[in-house]
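User: Some background: our group keeps a shared notebook of sequences we're curious about, and every so often someone picks one and asks for a predicted structure to add to the entry. Today it's my turn. The entry only has the sequence so far, pasted here. Could you supply the structure so I can complete it?
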Amino acid sequence: MQVSQVLAVHDKQDAVAPFSEAMAAFEAWDNASLLITDGQGHYRLMKNPVLVQKVADFIGRG
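Assistant: Of course. Here's the predicted structure to add to the notebook entry:
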């Protein structure tokens, strides 16, 4: 299956998955977008309503 668009979301302060790994994955994907946050960590991303809305908007465009 070919993925036409990818949105990766990663926080600079993520202590679980290093930001450098997110950058490497982003650079390896064609048609990828990277949404960078700062200060959300790894788990608080999912609790941020503004960020959740941005992801929902991206999915809705597909």
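Suggested note for the entry: The beta strands are 6-11, 32-37. The chain has two helices and two strands.
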